[in-house]
Write a structure and sequence with these properties.
184 residues; mainly beta; 5-stranded mixed β-barrel; 2 helices
Length: 184
């Protein structure tokens, strides 16, 4: 059982339904404020619960809001990688085209088209992030999506998205759509 001394002169104990609020003797009058005490554990106190595990990546539907989704060959609906951002550009379909130099443990994800067309980098595509000027991408982006803040070039990041091969661009590997990206 764990008890807490409350500022209002009551004690509350977890795990003991009879001890909802018990009067606590007030300290002698003083001009300085009373210190707030930490929980007091009784000898029969149970161990603290384990700390929570880190949140799992937030993945979504790999085809939602993607125009002509048939052009993307889905390899893994939810993959997390790390690396350094080398380039960011805006595209007419409302997406950003972000190049990520992968950390060595992810190099096997790259395809020959990444080397020839993307300087050896993985492509990250946060979709529907800005004004769409490409006609066939307007309907999928209608209503907008939450903005995904992209860290600046040179930032080491962790990125999560659907791992696909873009058959419209020679089969280069991408995270498309990108679901989240965090510096670190």
């Amino acid at each position: 059982m764990v008890c807490f001394a409350l500022i209002v002169g009551l004690a509350a104990c977890e795990g003991d339904p009879k001890a909802a609020a018990t009067p606590v003797p007030s300290p002698a009058a003083s001009t300085s404020p009373s210190p707030i005490t930490s929980p007091i554990a009784s000898p029969s106190a149970e161990p603290a619960p384990p700390s929570p595990t880190p949140a799992a990546p937030a993945c979504g539907d790999p085809t939602a809001h993607v125009y002509h989704a048939y052009r993307l060959q889905l390899i893994d609906p939810c993959r997390t990688v790390t690396g350094v951002i080398t380039s960011i550009r805006s595209e007419a379909d409302g997406d950003y085209h972000v190049r990520l130099m992968l950390d060595p443990q992810f190099a096997s994800m790259l395809r020959p088209a990444n080397t020839s067309g993307e300087h050896g980098d993985l492509v990250l595509e946060p979709i529907c992030q800005h004004a769409v000027t490409q006609a066939d991408a307007m309907a999928p982006c209608a209503g907008g999506l939450p903005l995904i803040p992209i860290p600046p070039i040179g930032t080491h990041v962790s990125a999560t998205g659907s791992y696909v091969l873009d058959n419209q661009h020679g089969g280069w590997a991408e995270l498309h759509p990108l679901f989240e990206i965090h510096a670190g």
